[in-house]
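tokens incoming
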């Protein structure tokens, strides 16, 4: 006989205070109480929002208390993770997914694509936490960077006249918008260089130089080189990813670097942009 699902226990940690001192609902989820009446008074170690994740696996580099077995009442210790944020009014959704990376029909990589989902932190891509999240649907039509989340469609693909193979390019009006965006981003990068005293040999400039070169080259390929539909789609999403990296780095240097380097403990207002 297969094992039967265990019914939720009627006592700790369901509906009681758990071994960590955290009150639990009747369903076992954590209950949090806010101690802050004015979000503008938050400091770097405070949390504006907090959430308990449903991830039960180990996160690389994150310390967790050892599993010492069942508690005296026969229940296991709650061993989920908590995510907190001092500068957002929301917590990104996290989930468990396969370690294999597959390109999807939209040219992106599902949960492994940083333009769609938050990613685990790695030093090689230290700027990912500054990547702009996808705007809400009601904000998207007027968003200045809406093209960076646009899903390229087959009807955007125009086959090359007289070609013997299925190659083509994206429609001209869309290409014109992409070129304008490319030029605007490049201008912002040049201004960032001037504002921070960067040169092409500056160590700090390398990440933004790499991403800016990537968005420009992908943009040029889209406008000059007829390709198959699949290659056009992948080049288009490559432009989007590099552009979002550029914006993340620009945001870091214009806003977050000063906060990061502040060591005097002066409370800063919560950024809700």
């Amino acid at each position: 006989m297969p094992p039967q699902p265990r019914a939720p226990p009627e006592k700790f940690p369901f509906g009681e205070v758990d071994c960590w001192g955290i009150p639990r609902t009747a369903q076992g989820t954590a209950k949090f109480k806010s101690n802050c009446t004015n979000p503008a008074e938050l400091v770097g170690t405070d949390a504006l929002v907090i959430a308990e994740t449903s991830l039960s696996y180990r996160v690389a580099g994150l310390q967790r208390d050892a599993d010492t077995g069942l508690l005296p009442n026969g229940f296991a210790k709650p061993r989920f993770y908590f995510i907190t944020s001092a500068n957002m009014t929301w917590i990104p959704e996290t989930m468990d997914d396969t370690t294999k990376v597959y390109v999807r029909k939209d040219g992106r990589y599902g949960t492994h694509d940083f333009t769609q989902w938050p990613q685990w932190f790695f030093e090689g891509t230290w700027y990912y936490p500054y990547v702009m999240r996808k705007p809400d649907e009601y904000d998207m039509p007027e968003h200045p960077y809406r093209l960076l989340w646009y899903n390229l469609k087959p009807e955007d693909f125009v086959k090359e006249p007289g070609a013997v193979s299925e190659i083509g390019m994206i429609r001209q009006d869309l290409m014109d918008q992409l070129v304008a965006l490319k030029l605007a981003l490049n201008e912002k990068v040049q201004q960032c260089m001037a504002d921070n005293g960067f040169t092409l040999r500056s160590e700090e400039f390398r990440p933004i130089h790499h991403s800016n070169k990537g968005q420009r080259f992908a943009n040029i390929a889209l406008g000059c080189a007829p390709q198959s539909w699949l290659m056009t789609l992948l080049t288009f999403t490559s432009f989007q990813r590099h552009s979002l990296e550029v914006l993340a780095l620009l945001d870091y240097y214009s806003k977050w670097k000063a906060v990061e380097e502040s060591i005097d403990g002066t409370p800063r207002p919560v950024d809700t942009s």
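note: The mean pLDDT is 82.
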